[in-house]
Amino acid sequence: MKTAEQKRTGTSERPGPDTDEILREIEAFIKKKFSGRDHHRNTRYYQANFAVDGPADMLITMSALIKVCIMALERAGNGGYSKLIPQPHITVQTALEFILQLAPFDEIKCLESILEVYRGTEETPGK
Q: Is residue 65 pLDDT above 90, yes or no?
C-alpha cells in the first residue's frame, strides 16, 4: 500500500534500478564490444561479429563485396548514382576498408606455420 508521501510524489513502493549494476553492465558491454583506439580520429573501435563457415567462405564473401564496389565505381564514374549517395567514392572506400579488415590474415599465418612444419617433416630423412 502506498504511503501518503508516495501518493503525493507519484512514486511507488518498488525500488528503482540498481545504478551500480547498470554501470557494471555498461562497463562489461564496452569492454566486450569496444577495442583499440584510432588516435588520428580520436575514436575507439566497435567490434561486431558475424558468422561464416570458415576462411574460404570469408574470401568468397570478400570477393563478392569487392565486385560490388567495382560495379559501384563504374556506375559512379558515369554519374549514375542517386541523391542518397552524394559521394559514392567515399562510400566505396569505406566498404573497401571494411573488407580489408575481414581478410583472414591470422588464418593464413597459421596455415603458413602448419605448412612449414609439414615441409620440415617431409624433408626429414628416414620418414
A: yes
CA distance 68 to 124: 47
For 87-117, the three-class secondary structure string (H helix, E strand, C coil) is CHHHHHHHHHHHHHHHCCHHHHHHHHHHHHH
Asked if residue 67 has pLDDT above 90, the reply is yes
pLDDT at 80 over 70: no
Q: What is the mean pLDDT of residues 89-106?
A: 89
DSSP states of the chain: ---HHHHHHT--SS----HHHHHHHHHHHHHHHEEEEETTTTEEEEP-----SSHHHHHHHHHHHHHHHHHHHHHHHTT---TT-S-HHHHHHHHHHHHHHHS-HHHHHHHHHHHHHHHHHHSSTT-
Residue 94 grid coordinates: 569505406
8 A C-beta contact, residue 20 and residue 29: no
Q: What is the pTM of this model?
A: 0.56
